[in-house]
Sequence to fold (746 residues):
Amino acid sequence: MTALWGAMNTRARILLGVLVVMLLAAPLALDRYFLSVLTLILYFVYVGQAWNLMMGYAGQLSLGHALYVGVGGYVAAALWVHYGIGPWLGVVPAIAIAAAFGAAIGWLGFRFGIEGVYFALLTIAFAEFTRIGFDHIPFVGGAGGLFIPYEQDRIGEWWNLRGGQHLFYYLAFLLAAVGVLITALLSRARLGFQWLAIREDETAARALGIDVFRAKMKAVLISSGMTAVGGVFYAFYNNSLFPTQIFNISRSIELILAPIVGGIGTVFGPVVGAFVLTPLGEVLIALTEWLGIDLPGVKAVFYGLTLMIIITLVPTGVWPWIARRLDLVKNEP
Amino acid sequence: MTSKNRGGLSRRHLLGGAAAATALLATPSIVRAQPKVLKVGVALPRSGYLAAAGQACYRGAEIAPKVLADYGYAVELMHVDTESNVDIARNQAERVIAEGAQCIVGAFQSGATLAIAQVCEQRQVPLCINVAAAPQITEQGYKYLVRNFQTGGQLAANGLRLIKDVMAATNVEFKNAVFTYANDTFGTSQAKAIDKHFPAANLPFKIEESIAYDPRAQDLSVEVTKIRAINPDLVMVVTRASDAIKLIRDMVRQRFEPKAIISPGSPGLYDEEFYQALGPLADYSVINVPWVNPKAKMTEAVAAAFKPAFPKRRFAVEGFNVGFTFEAMLIAADGFKRAGTADGPELMKAIRATDLAEHVMIGGPIQFDDTGQNNNIGSAVLQNRDRTPTVVLPESAATMKPVLPMPPWKGRT
Fold:
């Protein structure tokens, strides 16, 4: 952490401080709409960081991270709905079960040398068969979905995540901050350097004495566990879960876009990516409305085009480009 | 202006002027408190995987202001595309309310509807649900929503119950049936509802076998071969348009002709895509779903407004989505008219007290129970006739009589 702080120059520290203060004070100045957009941004910062650890640092491409969001959400929601176990407690088994799924995928993949796109296919396959499985589990509502009751008399029970926009905003802020801190810590830890070595050249890493299997398993376990916490947040924020939506591959793509656009393998890439992508969608909606364009799907076209332009112009991500241009980092974290 | 006039500015004049100014300043706020037009945020999945249905619902909303104006209601639409995405639905609901929407209509998809319901609850803005079948929506204790749509269970139960009416009206007996359904989320969930409600429907035949199929399969020849081997009188289906086309094509290829093909509560057999692909082979299939009452005066008004607004679309095919969305607009507008204000709590109170005898969908008056659910919505028996879903039951709404057994595939023109 100290190393990361040391890698930032004064300008970067001031900018980071201003951003944190602005985010903390946002509910005082912004209306509910902007807060809901910010909540979503911070959620994507967090889950983006979780994915970033696995892909950006350890070099293991997962296209099925929606699996962990779904499992985490379902476990905590089911415990709350059926047994009244609150999410602060429910998050523990949620992490454990999601990590068990991660362990199964990791073990299969790393033990049998399934790498690259084949490993990505394995992650998609797990997400897909879990979706089909949840479609047929009556305990969690099957295909009809699992609903967390919206009880008026429980509103305000922050310890049970029963509250309004402000509660979820600050919770998302906390998650995002913790996500950044975990990434910053791990990126400068021994494990982080092992991951980087594996990402760059697995054979060389093994030759250096790194236990590649163990290091990669740790990446999957940490990433899946972290993502599951995001799932718990998502479940209690939206109060409903449907297998077809939560485990969908589009969800997986959605949560990896921020780190890809922001810059994978960097601490602030997922942050910048989320702050670019989510508002971009909202701006495009407002822009098409302002231009009087009432064509459904036109936003998606503009969104795709903008993404293509960003990726073409800054293929390594927006954050490294900003950091270079503004001279924010002495040594890119 | 003379000096005399200036000198005549007395305390009385000042007080009078102040009173007049106060009255003038107060007037706009009174006018604002009692707007003449209700601003309705229409949240629908107009893009994404639910776009086709969302667009049909959109057409129902688009024609509403004109038709409702003739009935003395005034509404202004603020369209929102939820993009078939729960997160976007939530954000856009917040945005449209921030921009002045006083009521929300939507949102076709249960997950998106629930996300919007939370926003509406916290903002005290009424939500009139047009289409969303998850029963839990009205069982969660939300005070700021009403649903004018059948729950998934009601769709299946009514769909099954009407099979008996079809048998009575046509004097055709089914000795056995095969139930086949798409193994996707929608199909599986409907199949479970049908399994649950079948014993209570007390139908005089048994389901020999339930056959799930992959709706993305190239063809359904294997499934049809299995059905053909059982040779049931009735084939019950839960389909979407694309797999319904494959199912009928394979039945024709294998010359399998059951007495009836009935869909108890699902779309597919009445989509424009189905008619275009199959032509006359699409005819005589039966669908038991809620539908617009073709004999209702208000339906005629909606149909008349629909034709010039969307000349390439057929109201007769889009009755389900257009009808329910129009009715959600009607409920909001009627509540606003009775409340005389767009103030959330007052408007919601009026909407919950809705009692509309004249409306477009088949069924009793629109009324809501304590949970906000309208339980008076009926289902109709539709039969495809001349590539058009036609109401054949109940008799009070029917424009044709049901024809069963289905005529042979061969010789249809």
